[in-house]
């Protein structure tokens, strides 16, 4: 192989790597909205997740908010959405999230997901505030998150327990 070709291939490989890691460095891309599948070149973990998606609320109440926390230790990347239980339909929007996270405009709707901004800053027990639509009347909401401990170690589409509608 010529030196030139070798350099070119090497360059392409580095660019490819940079493109793949970009997803983790600055937050999930919009292409991850639907299946919550990051672009990392590694498969998700198939064992039991070290993270859980939890909340203290007993019900969701239209027009109010629900605080959702990712527990289980430090994580570097995540994407979080609220979905009608057992579907991929996303509802509501997220409040301005805490440091090292930002809103995403999944499915062309503002604030339908939250993701990290800096994979270099690991977060513990991040809490994100979900705003319930005034008119929501589905039986229950499930919060879903993909959470990355490292670029190569992540759990995809972890589900919270269902949160039923209150009065
Ligand atoms: C959610 O957390 C925020 C920030 O800690 C707090 O101000 C708010 O009252 C909480 N909301 C609920 C519904 O618990
Ligand atoms: C995170 O949450 C877990 C479970 O609630 C708790 O045991 C742990 O002490 C918390 N860690 C920090 C740093 O707040």
TrEMBL record:
Reelin domain sequence ranges: 10-167
Residues making up the signal peptide according to the UniProt record: 1-23
A Pfam family: Reeler
Keywords: Signal
Highest taxon of the lineage: Eukaryota
Gene Ontology, cellular component aspect: membrane
Protein name as catalogued: Putative defense protein Hdd11-like protein
Organism: Callorhinchus milii (Ghost shark)
């Amino acid at each position: 192989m010529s030196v030139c070709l070798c350099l070119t291939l090497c360059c392409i490989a580095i660019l490819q790597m940079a493109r793949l890691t970009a997803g983790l460095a600055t937050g999930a891309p919009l292409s991850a909205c639907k299946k919550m599948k990051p672009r990392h070149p590694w498969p998700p973990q198939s064992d039991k997740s070290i993270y859980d998606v939890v909340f203290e609320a007993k019900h969701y109440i239209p027009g109010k908010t629900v605080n959702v926390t990712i527990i289980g230790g430090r994580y570097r990347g995540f994407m979080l959405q609220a979905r009608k239980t057992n579907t991929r339909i996303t509802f509501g929007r997220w409040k301005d999230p805490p440091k090292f996270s930002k809103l995403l405009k999944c499915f062309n709707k503002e604030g339908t997901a939250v993701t990290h901004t800096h994979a270099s800053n690991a977060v513990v027990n991040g809490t994100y505030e979900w705003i319930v639509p005034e008119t929501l009347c589905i039986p229950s909401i499930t919060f879903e998150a993909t959470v990355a401990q490292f670029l190569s170690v992540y759990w995809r589409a972890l589900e919270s327990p269902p949160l039923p509608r209150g009065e």
